[in-house]
Amino acid sequence: MDDAEDGDVILHEYGHAMQDSESSAFGHSSRYGPAAVAEGSSDYWAAVMSWRSPHTANEDDVCIFDWDAIRYGRFFPRVQPEKSGRRCGRRTDVNRTLDEATARCPRVPFGGRYAPDPHCVGEVWSTGLWNIRRSLASEGRARARDMDQIYLASQFMYTGKETLKDAANALLCADEDLHPKGRPGDCRGEHYAVIHREMTRRGILH
Q1: Domain chopping of the chain, boundaries
Q2: Residue 85: which of 100, 103, 63 has the closest Cα?
Q3: Neighbouring C-beta atoms of residue 201, cutoff 10 Å
Q4: Which residues are within 8 A (CB) of 74 and not within 5 positions of it... i.e. 6 or more apart?
Q5: Beta-bridge partner residues of 190
Q6: Are 56 and 144 in contact (CB under 8 A)?
C-alpha cells in the first residue's frame, strides 16, 4: 500500500512539519519525550482534519490510517478489524493512561535502548487532546476551533526535552494566552478545567 494514498498519513506528516516549523529544537530532538508528543500530536491533527471534512462521523475521525492499515503485516504489526470492519493503524480514543501505555506498549529500539513504542504511547496524548476537543465541540463548532488554536499556539512553547507533562502544561498556558481568566501568568485560562481534568484522567498531569 502506498502511504501517500492515505489522507491520514499526509495530514499526520503535515502535523510533524508544523511542529518542526514552530519549534526547531523540538523538531530536531532525538529524545524520547518529544518523539511521543510528536507522534500523538500528528495523529490528533489527522483526526481534526477528518472532523473538518463533510459527512464524517466520530469513528471516521478517530480511526487513523484506516486505508494504509489494510496492508499492515510486513513492516508494521497486522491489526485486527474493528467491529465496523475497518482496520485502524492507530486510534485517538484509546482507554489507557500514561502508566498503562508505558507498561503495555511494545518495546522498540530507541536511542540505543529498548523503550515503549512512542507511537503507541502517543495514543494517550492524542486521546487526551481529542477528548478535550470533543468536550468543547459539544458547546458548538466555534469552541472546537478554540481548541485548534490553543493546540497550535502551545507548540511554540515546545523544547528539545519536551515531555507529555510539559506539553499538557503548554496547552494550559496557551489557553491562558488566548482566553485569559484569573491572574495573568497563572496558566488558568477559560478552558483550564476541561484541559486539566482530561490530562489528569490520562495520567499526564497530577
Answers
A1: 3-201
A2: 63
A3: 13
A4: none
A5: none
A6: no
More confident residue, 153 or 70: 153
Q: Give burial (CB, 10 Å; 0-12/13-18/19+) of 28.
A: exposed
Q: What is the dihedral of CA 42, 45, 46, 49, to 10 degrees?
A: -160
pTM: 0.92
For residue 30, give the C-alpha cell: 532525538
Look at strands 113-116 and 107-110 and give their pairing: antiparallel
Q: What is the mean pLDDT of residues 37-65?
A: 91
DSSP for 164-192, please give it: HHHHHHHHHHHHHHHS--SSTTS---TTH
The packing angle between helices 141-154 and 32-51, to 10°, is 160
The pLDDT tens digits for 65-79 are: 877 766 654 445 555
**Cell numbers placing 150:** 490553543
